[in-house]
Amino acid sequence: MNTLKGYRIEFHILQSFPVTCLNRDDVGAPKSAVVGGVPRARVSSQCWKRQVRLQLQELGVKTALRTKQVEGILTKACVEAGADEEKAKVFSEGFAKALVDDALLFFSESEARAVAEAALTGNFSVEAAIKKNALTPAFKKIHKKYFKPAEDGLDIALFGRMVAQAPELNVSAAASFAHAISTHRVDSEIEFFTALDDDPMGIITQGSAHMGSLEFNSATYYRYVSLDLGQLAETLEGVGLAHAVSSFVKALYLAVPSARQTTQTGLHLWDYARVLVRRGQGMQVSFESPVRSQEGFLAPSIAALDAAIARQEKQAGSLYGKKAEFTFGRAENEISIDELAEGLASFVKPFEVQA
């Protein structure tokens, strides 16, 4: 029985960046949105999720592969299981076509090994695994049985997986990311720049060799992230819950979008965060009314966030379901990210099962 069903960790994060272009649109300008009738800076959810996934890897967490190269991964696994190169290629080509159709797939190494070992019993016969261009029930069961996200696919458990041609292999995402928006009005600015030629041949008399322009902005962003503990426990089957939560918190803290980091270096981490463990409906803050200030936006954004969360709790009453709360970035009772991660991990530790 999943006794974490309905529980979630909610992260309300404020993070300020100076001159940056953290997430570009199709013309290279900073992404934006109109909220509360004014333009806001925006960073898409998928942009920040990718950086969290990469940070998990940096923290030593084994993640799955997000790739279109399923055939190559399976070929390698089949050869390691005992197939000759030709049989491995034929089997893997057929299997990959039945599994994914020109789309990126989250695919773990344990799944690849399980499929290869099962294929060995049928002498790597494509017909044993594929019927009418679809995986056979037996191979779907094998694929699902040996999916071990606690070992090598935590990112699948966190961010989900959709396999249109084999829905049985779908995994619901435990982590939900809202698009980050600035708490205040933001208008992008234009940087004009030139580049000079070193002129090794001595033929240039004056002027620049190149001129260009790019857009940038600066903003205090509100980020809302919800981690569904019930879904995470279900996908992980209760194995490694505390480690998963702790790793996710640290990766979330360290993750910063990579756009234009060499030219603008936006590497500021969290300024402030309210982190709640709750049971019930998720509740983000809209910042529909833009913060206005002549002396910086962080302090009034903190005040607005605290007021909004207090109002939500009062309005929701018994339905708010708060079980624990942590405040990060407050001068009094300051806590480190390690203490925050440990505190959240300790909440789920009693619900773990042994592998």
Topology:
Blueprint lengths: L6 E14 L11 E4 L2 E6 L1 H14 L6 E3 L2 H12 L3 H15 L5 E3 L1 H13 L4 H4 E2 L2 E2 L1 H9 L3 H4 L1 H6 L15 E3 L2 E3 L6 E7 L14 E19 H8 L4 H14 L6 H4 L7 E8 L18 H19 L5 E7 L8 H12 L7
Antiparallel strand pairs: 1-11, 1-12, 2-3, 3-9, 4-5, 6-7, 8-11, 9-11, 10-11, 12-13
Can you walk through the features of this model?
Helices cover 38% and strands 23% of the residues. With 355 residues, it is of the alpha+beta class. The strands form three sheets. Strands 1, 2, 3, 8, 9, 10, 11, 12 and 13 form a nine-stranded antiparallel β-sheet that branches. Strands 4-5 form a two-stranded antiparallel sheet. A hairpin with a 2-residue loop joins β6 and β7. α1 crosses α10 (241-254), α2 packs across α3 (85-99) and α10 (241-254) runs antiparallel to α13 (337-348). The longest helix is centred in the C-terminal third of the chain and has 19 residues, at 298-316. It is flat. The two termini are 16 Å apart. The model has no long low-confidence stretch (mean pLDDT 93).
Summarize the structure.
The chain has 355 residues and is an alpha+beta fold. The chain folds into two domains: 7-63 and 173-194 and 212-351, no CATH class; 66-152, no CATH class.
Classification by helices and strands: alpha+beta
Structurally, how many domains make up the residues? Answer: 2
What is the tally of helical segments?
A: 13
What is the helix content?
25-40%
* Whole-angstrom Rg: 24 Å
SSE string, helices as H and strands as E: EEEHEHHEHHEEHHHEEEEHHHEHEH
Residue windows where pLDDT falls under 50 for at least 5 positions: none
**Rounded average pLDDT:** 93
Q: Please provide the count of β strands.
A: 13
- N-to-C CA distance: 16 Å
Q: What can be said about the biggest beta sheet?
A: 9 strands, antiparallel
Give me the oligomer status. single chain
Shape: flat
Q: Which band does the percent of strand residues land in?
A: 15-25%
